[in-house]
Amino acid sequence: MPQIRPVSDLRNNFAEISRVVHETAEPVFLTKNGYGDMVVMSMETFERHQFQSEVFLKLKEAELEAETTSKRYSHKDVFDELRAKLSDRIKSDNV
Predict the structure, then answer these.
(1) pTM value?
(2) Which CATH number is 3-41 given?
(3) How far apart are CA 95 and CA 92, in angstroms?
(4) SS3 letters for 20-56?
(5) How far is CA 74 from CA 7, 15, 70, 77, 87, in A?
(6) In sequence order, which residues have a C-beta less than 8 Å from that of residue 17 and are 6 or more positions away?
(7) Strand, helix or coil at 69?
(8) pLDDT, tens digit, 9 for 90 and up, residues 1-24
């Protein structure tokens, strides 16, 4: 269940809010005059949300491409290309 607190708690109970966001890995929603104003979360939670958003966007791009083209790649084709790129990178790093 999300925690909703007045924004004044950020000033008056900062240590408690910090503890809550780190222990629960959930954001705390802050209100001002009864309306949503801010969200406070740990860096780890923020980074996880950022990563999930990036993955979601990449999947949406892939879906759009799949809808607009009939070209399909096999598992073997994809992994062969990845292995070749990794091999080239390793060779260039060792030079």
Answers:
(1) 0.64
(2) 3.40.1620.10
(3) 5
(4) HHHHHCCCEEEEECCEEEEEECCHHHHHHHHHHHHHH
(5) 52, 52, 13, 5, 20
(6) 5, 9, 10, 28, 40
(7) coil
(8) 889 999 999 999 999 999 999 999
Residue 93: band (very low, low, confident or very high) from pLDDT cuts 50, 70, 90: confident
CB 25 within 8 A of CB 45: yes
Q: Which pair of structure tokens corresponds to residue 27?
A: 């954001």
Ranges of each domain in the chain = 3-41, 45-94
Count of beta carbons in the 10 Å neighbourhood of residue 40: 20
